[in-house]
C-alpha cells in the first residue's frame, strides 16, 4: 500500500503549464494502491543524451519524464478501480489459485477431522511441506494446542479458525505500507538473485506509483545480464518514464548518475536495478555494497529503501537469501513474486519468525494488477479459506 498524495510541480524540462488559480497542496494521506489493468502502452520517445556526471557514467535518457497527474484524476481513478468489489474478488481468486498447492493440503486436514494427536501430526507435516520451517511450525502447533485446551475446542472448524488467527498474528509484523514522499527523490535500490523477477517488479512498481502523482526515474544498474538494460528500457517506454543506462561499465556509476539526475529533475522516486547474484558469490555481494555506498555519496541518507525480490518458488532457500542480503545491505522491505500455483507460501511464516522484514508486495502473475500490497489477513484467507 502506498501512503502519499500531493500536487507535484511539473518537471523542469517540460513546457510551463497553463496558468491556473493557486491552490494549497493536498496533505499526505494514506492511499491504497488499486488493482487496475494497464492502459495502452504509450509510444516510445526519442532518446535524449544525458549530461556527463562527475562520477564517470555516460548515460542515456529514454522516454520523457512522466507529466504530473491531476489530483482529481487520481481520486477518480482510485474511486472507480480501487473500491471496485469485482477487482478485489478477482485479486483474491488469483491469490488463492497461486497458493493452491499449500491450501489444498491444509484445508483437507480439517474436513471431518477428530481433534487428536493424529491431526496435529498431519498438520505438522503439512506445514513443513509448505516451507514454513521448523521454528514457525513448532510455534504454531504449540500455540494451537494451548488454544484448544484453554477454549475447550472440540469442533474441527473451530480449530481451523484458531489456526487462522494464529497464522495471521504471526504474519502481521510483515505488514507495512511503502511510504512515498518522505524524500525527493525517494531512492530505492532493488536486489535479488538471478531470475527472481527484479526488472519486471520494477516496471510494475513504477506503474503503480504513477497512479499517485509520482514521477519515476529508473536506473539500469544490471550491466552484467544480457539484455537486462534493454528489458528495463521496454518497461520505461511502456510506462512513459525515464531510464538511465549505459552500454557497459560500472553499475555504481549508473546508480550515481540516476540519483544526481533525479535530484536535478526533481523526480519523486528513483529506482535502481542491480545485477542478480547468489548470496554465496561474495565478490558480487561486495559489488552490491559498493553500489549502496555510491548512492549515499549521490544523496545523503540514500538509498531510503533497499528491497529484496524473492521468487516464491525457492522454498527455504528464500530465508537464506533474506539473511544474506539483509546482513550485507540492511534490507528495508521484501517483494515476493511468482506465487503462481507452484509456490507453497509457507516461507513467509519462516521469515516472520526468523527475520521479520516487511513484505511490501506479493505477486501472483505477469500482469500489472498481479502485484499487490501484502495483507496478512488476505494471505491466510487464501491459505486456509
Automatic annotation (TrEMBL):
UniProt-annotated location(s): Cell membrane; Cytoplasm
Pfam families per UniProt: SRP54, SRP54_N
Membrane topology: Peripheral membrane protein
CDD domains membership: FtsY
Chief site of localization: membrane
Domain SRP54-type proteins GTP-binding: 358-371
Its job: Involved in targeting and insertion of nascent membrane proteins into the cytoplasmic membrane. Acts as a receptor for the complex formed by the signal recognition particle (SRP) and the ribosome-nascent chain (RNC). Interaction with SRP-RNC leads to the transfer of the RNC complex to the Sec translocase for insertion into the membrane, the hydrolysis of GTP by both Ffh and FtsY, and the dissociation of the SRP-FtsY complex into the individual components.
Cross-referenced PANTHER family: SIGNAL RECOGNITION PARTICLE RECEPTOR SUBUNIT ALPHA
Protein's UniProt name: Signal recognition particle receptor FtsY
Lineage: Bacteria, Pseudomonadati, Pseudomonadota, Betaproteobacteria, Burkholderiales
Amino acid at each position: 500500500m502506498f501512503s502519499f498524495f500531493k500536487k507535484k510541480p511539473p518537471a523542469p524540462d517540460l513546457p510551463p503549464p497553463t496558468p491556473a488559480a493557486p491552490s494549497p497542496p493536498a496533505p499526505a494521506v494514506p492511499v491504497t494502491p488499486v488493482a487496475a489493468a494497464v492502459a495502452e502502452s504509450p509510444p516510445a520517445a526519442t532518446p535524449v543524451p544525458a549530461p556527463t556526471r562527475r562520477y564517470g557514467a555516460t548515460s542515456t535518457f529514454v522516454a520523457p519524464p512522466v507529466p504530473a497527474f491531476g489530483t482529481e484524476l487520481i481520486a477518480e481513478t482510485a474511486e472507480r478501480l480501487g473500491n471496485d468489489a469485482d477487482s478485489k474478488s478477482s485479486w483474491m481468486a488469483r491469490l488463492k489459485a497461486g497458493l493452491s498447492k499449500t491450501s489444498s493440503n491444509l484445508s483437507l486436514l480439517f474436513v471431518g477431522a477428530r481433534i487428536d494427536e493424529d491431526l496435529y501430526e498431519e498438520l505438522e507435516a503439512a506445514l513443513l511441506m509448505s516451507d514454513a520451517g521448523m521454528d514457525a511450525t513448532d510455534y504454531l502447533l504449540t500455540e494451537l494446542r494451548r488454544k484448544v485446551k484453554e477454549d475447550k475446542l472440540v469442533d474441527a472448524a473451530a480449530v481451523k479458525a484458531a489456526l487462522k488467527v494464529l497464522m495471521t498474528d504471526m504474519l502481521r509484523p510483515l505488514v507495512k505500507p511503502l511510504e512515498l514522499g518522505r524524500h525527493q527523490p525517494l531512492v530505492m535500490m532493488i536486489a535479488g538473485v538471478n531470475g527472481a523477477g527484479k526488472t519486471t517488479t520494477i516496471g510494475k512498481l513504477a506503474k503503480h506509483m504513477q497512479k499517485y502523482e509520482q514521477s519515476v526515474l529508473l536506473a539500469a544498474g544490471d550491466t552484467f545480464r544480457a539484455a537486462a538494460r534493454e528489458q528495463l528500457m521496454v518497461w520505461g517506454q511502456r510506462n512513459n518514464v525515464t531510464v538511465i543506462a549505459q552500454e557497459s561499465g560500472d553499475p555504481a556509476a549508473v546508480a550515481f548518475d540516476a540519483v544526481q539526475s533525479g535530484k536535478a529533475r526533481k523526480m519523486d522516486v528513483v529506482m535502481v536495478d542491480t545485477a542478480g547474484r547468489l548470496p554465496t558469490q561474495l565478490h558480487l555481494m561486495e559489488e552490491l555494497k559498493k553500489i549502496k555506498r555510491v548512492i549515499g555519496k549521490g544523496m545523503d541518507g540514500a538509498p531510503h529503501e533497499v528491497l529484496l525480490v524473492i521468487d516464491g518458488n525457492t522454498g527455504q532457500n528464500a530465508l537464506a537469501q533474506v539473511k544474506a542480503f539483509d546482513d550485507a545491505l540492511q534490507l528495508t522491505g521484501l517483494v515476493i513474486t511468482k506465487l503462481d500455483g507452484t509456490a507453497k507460501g509457507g516461507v513467509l511464516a519462516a521469515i516472520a519468525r526468523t527475520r521479520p522484514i516487511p513484505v511490501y508486495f506479493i505477486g501472483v502473475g505477469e500482469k500489472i494488477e498481479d502485484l499487490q500490497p501484502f495483507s496478512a489477513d488476505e494471505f491466510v484467507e487464501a491459505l486456509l479459506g
